[in-house]
Write a structure and sequence with these properties.
180 residues; mainly beta
């Protein structure tokens, strides 16, 4: 996408998840004008999948491409014209979390705790607390033991009704039933 790009460095990236990946050179320190060019290829000397010149902050580069889990991509970072210097390359999945080297889609609950979820807006590498009121626990709870819900801080709250609360535990209309 930019023929006047020189002094390049190549990186190999193997996708950890299938989906969009953001690649950017924010934080790079090149001179004389801190201007980078970024390209993604399907193989060394292969087909260019994506390219960007100046799509990031200032004259730095940023692009998004769709990756396939387990596929290796070749990323070229170059300086525009005669720009050279320190490169900072960030590669991150979008709308996914990679936790303990496992990919989870946005909204996926933690298999060990239903009150934690993959919420990329909060973290792409750690579980985040599920919203207060998210169902958890035993879905077959009775009227006196209402379905449990997340507290908003990562814990499942047991929702018992107070002792003495009225309920309709049996089909006999002539009895008064109470929770214990």
């Amino acid at each position: 996408c930019q023929l006047n790009s020189n002094h390049d460095v190549w990186f190999k990236y193997t996708a950890t998840c299938t989906g969009p990946v953001l690649v950017k050179t924010a934080g790079s320190m090149c001179a004389p004008s801190n201007d980078t060019v970024l390209s993604v290829f399907d193989a060394c000397g292969g087909l260019e999948i994506a390219c960007d010149d100046d799509g990031g902050v200032g004259l730095l580069s940023a692009l998004t491409f769709n990756a396939m889990e387990g596929v290796m991509y070749f990323i070229r970072v170059a300086g525009y014209a005669d720009n050279v210097g320190d490169i900072s390359l960030t590669i991150q999945t979008i709308d996914d979390c990679v936790i303990d080297d496992v990919c989870y889609a946005e909204g996926t609950p933690n298999p060990a705790n239903p009150c934690e979820q993959c919420i990329p807006a909060l973290s792409t590498s750690d579980w985040s607390p599920a919203l207060k009121g998210t169902p958890c626990g035993d879905p077959t709870d009775t009227e006196c033991n209402s379905p449990d819900s997340c507290d908003g801080a990562g814990a499942c709250e047991v929702n018992f009704k107070p002792d003495g609360s009225a309920c309709t535990a049996d089909p006999f209309e002539c009895t008064l039933d109470f929770c214990l």
